[in-house]
Specification:
86 residues; 5 helices; 70% helix
């Protein structure tokens, strides 16, 4: 009888463990931000690269100049670095 209880407890523990989100789960806001700048509309990307071509700038300066959000500007500047443009 104790073996059945132990088995039931183990099954219940496994069910509980399965309900936990994986560590690598991306938050919805992060995914939304990524998708908002990766939908094929690269106008922000072109603006960031164009502004940097005119005058080297920090992210803060680009945010002010382009009137953009930090998350957008910094991610696109990093994309420019990774793509070899900056």
């Amino acid at each position: 009888m104790d073996d059945d209880k132990d088995t039931d407890d183990k099954i219940e523990e496994e069910k509980t463990e399965e309900k936990k989100p994986p560590v690598w789960l991306i938050q919805d806001t992060t995914r939304d931000a990524y998708e908002s700048v990766n939908r094929g509309d690269d106008s922000w990307y072109r603006q960031v690269l164009g502004a940097l071509e005119e005058a080297p700038s920090t992210c803060d300066e680009l945010e002010i100049t382009l009137q953009g959000r930090h998350q957008t500007i910094s991610s696109l500047r990093l994309n420019g670095v990774q793509d070899g443009y900056i």
